[in-house]
Amino acid sequence: MRNRVDVLHGPILETLLLLMAPLLVCGLFQELYTVADGIIVGRFAGSTGLAIIGGSANNLISLFTGPATGLITGAMFIAAFCFGRNDTAQTRDCICTSLVLAAAFGLLIMVLYWLLGTPMMVFLRVPEDVLARSAAFLKLYAVGFLPYCLYEMTINLMRASGESRQPTIFLILSFLINILLDLVFVGWLHMEETGAAWAYILTQSISAWITVRMFMDQMDLKLEDLRPHRRTLKSILKVGIPAGASSMLYTLTNMLMQSSINLLGSTTIASYVIFNKIDNLYWIVMAGLGLAVTTFCGQCYGAGLMDRFHKGVKVSLWAAAGISAASSALLYFGADFLAGLFSRDAEIIAIARGMLQFVPLYYLAYSVTEPLFAVLRALNRSSETFWITLVFVCGTRVAWILFYGLPHLSWHSILASYPISWAIASLVFVLYYRHLKDKAGDPPDAKLS
Known about the structure:
By secondary structure, the chain is mainly α. The chain folds into 2 domains: 36-228, no CATH class; 241-449, no CATH class. The chain is built from 18 helices and no strands. Helix 1 (12-44) runs antiparallel to helix 2, helix 1 (12-44) packs antiparallel against helix 10 (266-303) and helix 6 runs antiparallel to helix 7 (165-188).
């Protein structure tokens, strides 16, 4: 891996930026892919096909990707820890365990969705006229979960080592392949939502085959080496399960937010969609910072460089504050122009502009949360991050919406739950990190625990 970033030496800000840059490129390409996919399906499969792909099936797919991302993040941190310690044996154990875990998890969720796809659609009250097609789409799409998990796990294990170039190239190629296959199956062959599912399955399968084989060759691993190692598996799950549960909580809370906005009518719903698409750019950048901090802190912790570790925390907090301030200014002053890119309806633009000039003003309240969430994982405090997320982020939002937002129904009252939960959670994260800082001074034990 000739393009690895040297995480353990050199200027910290430069290191974080080098780790972030490819993640941002991948995030932007993913956003472009999402837009292109929606255009292709909407144009060739019609409103029914778009509703099937973007409706309840999409929510259930998000419920899968949340825990999957959590497990992958857990493996990424443990791998970064091992790379930082320069422990070849533990690194190989981590890679083998991670790949087996990814395959097992993808297979488990695929089987569950096959068995429960239709009952879940009925529970979510999917309209009768699209119920059968929605369930069939979900079951077929779930076939791609196994290669998806293997592919994403491999990409993030590469990132944990400090490798930046290869994961970026692989992800961009996968997005382009998916768009091309969408055009073939949905546009040319008119297979509607079934074509979109097959495009996803083939893309993930091709991507997984190429990346896993290449990565195993680079690490000098063979197929017979792939088996779980109990201690490493325990360490990954200790980080991954709370992270996955936190992702699920965010998804469920966002579903409550969406259902509350739905009560305000189609105009507000359309404005909220525009707001989310623009607001998502900020979260792409912050997610990139969070993953960069995970790699940085994981390797420094593994190498026992606690002074560099804590300096990295400070730098990441300043970086997050800078990103948040710049994003707030950009969205506040560019709200009219940005909203106008998505609609010509004056009322929709006005509401979207109001949302863009309200919520992003408080990005600074969130800027502490993303870096410290990653840092606490590196300090082996994933369970605590889960409880902070549950109580002070999701709990605050649910309580606010139920006891204030809905009784005083407006988009202002609903969206106010964002900055309030950010401010409270950030305060708790800071207090808890300061509490742990002195305890984190000693290098970790040579064995994973």
